[in-house]
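Journal club prep — side note

Before the paper discussion, L.F. wants everyone to see what a predicted structure for a comparable chain looks like in token form. Sequence:
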Amino acid sequence: MRIAMLGHSNSGKTTYVSSMYAALQRGPSGFRLASESGRHHEELLRAASTIRAGGYPPPSSQRSEYAFQLWRRQQSVLDFTWHDYRGGALFERAGDSPETLQLMENLAGADGIVVFVDAHHLATSRHSASQARRLTALSQRAVESRHDVIPVVIVYTKADLVTTDEQWRAAGAPLAALEKAVLESPNIAGMVTRVSCRTGQNVTTPVLWLVSCGLARHVEQLENNARSSTRAAEAARERITLSDSVGSFFRNERSWAQIADGHARDAAQYRSQFRSLRGTSRKLSRAAARAL
């Protein structure tokens, strides 16, 4: 699964990744997050410790890619990559920066998108509307040509700094069109949440929800693969004849009996994986629902 983050500089993307990773070292219902990179593991935990002490990591100055693994107890559940881009890449023309071009390509191929916006900045700055329009345009472009359903989360960061209903109305106004598209579009599974890394509010919600969507799709695909392989095995068995078995032996080719056995083995493997992950997928969906 590939998850892409969108957000302008100082929107809290880098801070979120560290806080989320630390919070999911011992997550709900036995779920936990691991990094394939020992260096990333140490860096993220060190940054999270700094955040808990009242400091914040500097905004990302370059593109980062994290390879994560979701585990439940001793079972590896799902591998996913988490792409972070420096905020300035969002506002450059695609032809001006290789990173911006890469961002557009990855958005088009992403399995999930997280849109980060600084709620306090939206509520208090007159210049926030232009940034919101750019985020809206990029998000809509990323999903408008998709034929599958893609999960998209809008994350309002620094929620602890927005203290009144009037401020929240001001923060939400520039993104009203994007929220409507995310929550109502037929090719988007959408969710909107408020996050505060300083207080720990909802830091696990976006990733749990996105990964639960990805795991549910993976489980569905395993079931479909098992059915397809079963049908292929049945079709191959209908073509088994003695002459084919003998002729295939002398031609050094796979016989229809061997082809049928191969499809049957594939079906059994897919079915075993499906049964192993089906219950885990349901538990993850419930954990994500509780986080909401």
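L.F.'s comment for the group: The radius of gyration is 23 Å. Keep this in mind when we get to the figures.
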